[in-house]
Amino acid sequence: MTFAHGALDCIARLLSTELRPGDAVAVEDPGFHHLLDLVPALGLRMVPVTVDGEGLVPEALRAALRGGVRAVVCSPR
Q1: What is the spatial distance between Cα 9 and Cα 30, in angstroms, rounded to a whole number?
Q2: Residues 6+ apart with CB under 8 A from 43
Q3: Among 40, 48, 61, 66, which residue carries the largest CB count within 10 Å?
């Protein structure tokens, strides 16, 4: 069980626990501006994934996964 002070705190805890500096994280493009600051602050690399009206574009997500991202952060639509 994890307790956090909101969604961003929870994401930060999960990423810093499961990933190592330099690991790649897929994020929505355009995305949540606080998350775009958080990922590099944790020493992680951002991999932008295109979104449309329904969320992550499947082919863009597949390309990110093939490229070796270790985590995907997305928002429900």
Answers
A1: 20
A2: 21, 22
A3: 61
